[in-house]
Design goal:
Helix content is 28%, strand content 21%. It is an alpha+beta fold and 160 residues long. The radius of gyration is 24 Å and the shape is elongated.
Length: 160
């Protein structure tokens, strides 16, 4: 025969464990997840689709979601590696990405594809304007709209 007795201190211990467990479950349910590779970027435009970017047509369609008209033939398609350590320039570039709900620091040391397209409808610039898209596993993870002029501009996908 086996007899087990509970003391008041044992009951208090289990009560504290239950309260802690309930608090943990509540936090997990209500605090947003950060740093997941599978996350969809938080964009100002909720209708923008960052996933399923497999073909050239998908990339052109992606840019059109922001109102950009581009030459459908990519100017450049190249594999690049996101550096392990961000220098001052790359840190600044990643700040542009963060402002548009993306973050390249999740992809350090990963090989990604960069596709560059000439933008046809950028108003207010006499120089050529390019759209760069960074794609990893059929998902846009970063990119920009920039001037070909060295003293030009660079910003995220949204029209300014």
């Amino acid at each position: 025969m086996f007899i087990y007795s509970l003391r008041a201190s044992t009951l208090k211990f289990f009560a504290v464990v239950c309260v802690a467990l309930a608090t943990l479950i509540t936090l997990i349910a209500f605090v947003p997840a950060y740093g997941n590779e599978g996350e969809t970027p938080a964009s100002k435009n909720a209708d923008v689709d960052y996933d399923g970017i497999k073909t050239n047509e998908d990339r052109v369609k992606f840019l059109s979601q922001f109102g950009w008209e581009v030459d459908p033939a990519a100017v450049e398609s190249i594999e690049v590696t996101i550096p392990e350590n961000f220098d001052k320039v790359f840190t600044g570039y990643n700040e542009i990405q963060k402002r548009q709900g993306l973050d390249l620091s999740r992809y350090k040391k990963k090989n990604v594809m960069r596709y560059t397209y000439e933008v046809k409808n950028y108003e207010g610039s006499e120089d050529k304007v390019y759209a760069n898209i960074l794609v990893y596993k059929n998902k846009v993870i970063g990119g920009d709209i920039c001037s070909a002029n060295v003293k030009g501009f660079i910003h995220g996908f949204e029209k300014n």
